[in-house]
Amino acid sequence: MLAVATSLIENKQGYYVPAAISGRHVHLCRADIDTLFGTGYKLSHHRDLVQPGQFACKEKVALVGAKGRIEGVRVLGPARPHTQVEISQTDSYKAGIVPVVRMSGKTEGTPGCTLMGPKGEVKLDHGVIIAARHLHMSAAQADRYGLMNGQVISVRKTGVRETIFGNVVVRAGDGHELELHIDTDEANAAGMTCGELLEIVVYVKMMESNKELIERITKEVLSRLGINQYGEKKPDTLAVYTGYVFNEAAVSAYLNKRENVTCVLFGEAVYNNAAFDYINAAAHDEKQRLANMLDKYNAIVIVTPPLSYIQRAAAADDSAYECMLALRPLLWGKKVTLLLDFALPRNKRGFSELSDSIDALEQMGMVIEALRDNANEGRKELVTEQDVKDAAKRRLDSIKIMPNAIVTALARDTAAELGIRIEL
Question: CA 424, CA 421: separation in Å to the nearest integer?
């Protein structure tokens, strides 16, 4: 999320910031590090945090209050002038500490606790806080957002458990990067995940002169986040249109059953469904961008391709870009579906090789599906191994097919093994 933490996100609904969920942790001064871990002890680096120069340590301590003990409190580095412990409201109940909500560093008049480490213990008479909600941002980022250090804003988490967090203090300046900090109690109440984008509700609009910069940053950040220009999650399905689309209404109905569809167009392919996003992959730059994103799609659908495409793909020939979009995901373990618009006429000369190609694709792991004619509901134009297995699960003893339907070799073998008849 480092790239996100340095970028502004603007779309039609407003401005957004990435959220970090802060679990219980402690910042230690040098003297307390020596007491807890030994004189001259050097904290061990575990991972970097978004805020510049800050890191999570491998070391943990125990926190002891009037009513209980909390193990595994993470130490954050580097050492600070004064020790400060940050917990949640729930933690305070367990430890028996009267909670005080404060900004970091404002520990006067706060409760204390005992910290226990492998080499000793530290008794604090103050320094335990519940951190106030706050938004980190650099001076440049604050300028872009139209916000000022110390300003109090609200942010909104959308979704089923929509929540508005008020009293968020802006901390802007050197040593800060774009990141909203809330604690685990607040995040759990709103059903949040770390890295989720929250909308700024109270903000000062940016100057029009920054519009071009915002558009450029927005495009980059959304691309890195894997979401589209409407702030929606990266599409799950890539529908590949390699040429003319046959039975376009049926294709649209098929794709409408899937969530988050992006269509990629080639050659004579026509895009007429405003419900889907699309990519025109005619240019080299667009092809390369799609190749970079390909592994992020969960499923690929090859839409009513030319017959030559089927034969090239069956030969594992990915020299053609369109075939690569099916073959590479297959090798990566993705679900790839070949959506056919026809039932192969086996009694006509010249189609036997095509039938063999379809069998080969199924054996390679591709799912074969065919668009159905409502007038022949119940009779299949295409029977695959999965169709036979599904029939067995439903305790059917036969599968009805249309004349000249395609029955793959794996389907015939599985039907014989499971005792399921395939009949007209």
Answer: 10
